[in-house]
Amino acid sequence: MFYLSLIEHTLRLPPHILHLPVDEAIKSELETLFLDKVIAKLGLCISVYDIRSIKGGFIFPGDGASTYTVEFRLIVFRPFIGEIIVAKLKESDASGLRCKSGRIFFYLYGFGCLV
């Protein structure tokens, strides 16, 4: 259901957040990029767990942003086939069900006519 995934990403930090400490700025930017997004073959990103390493800090010509290579771990939600998930039914129609489990909204389809 929930997994810890190690990811390496090249991250561009815009100039307007460079006044923050580097680790805080990087975590903020990672959360903006990854949280509440689905990554193929990985799952739905729930939270940045920790930052393992930060390398770089290069500024490329013509760009005011610094670029870092960051290795970090994400908590991801990836249900397996047959897993039972407790959720509240929000809406149903002929095409499927719309449900909510905590902060996560999802759509189940292919059940035929449920109305």
TrEMBL record:
It comes from the Eukaryota. One of its GO terms (cellular component) is RNA polymerase III complex. SUPFAM superfamilies: N-terminal, heterodimerisation domain of RBP7 (RpoE). Gene3D superfamilies: RNA polymerase Rpb7-like, N-terminal domain. It is found in: Nucleus. GO terms for biological process: transcription initiation at RNA polymerase III promoter. Signal peptide: none annotated. This is DNA-directed RNA polymerase subunit. It comes from Gossypium lobatum.
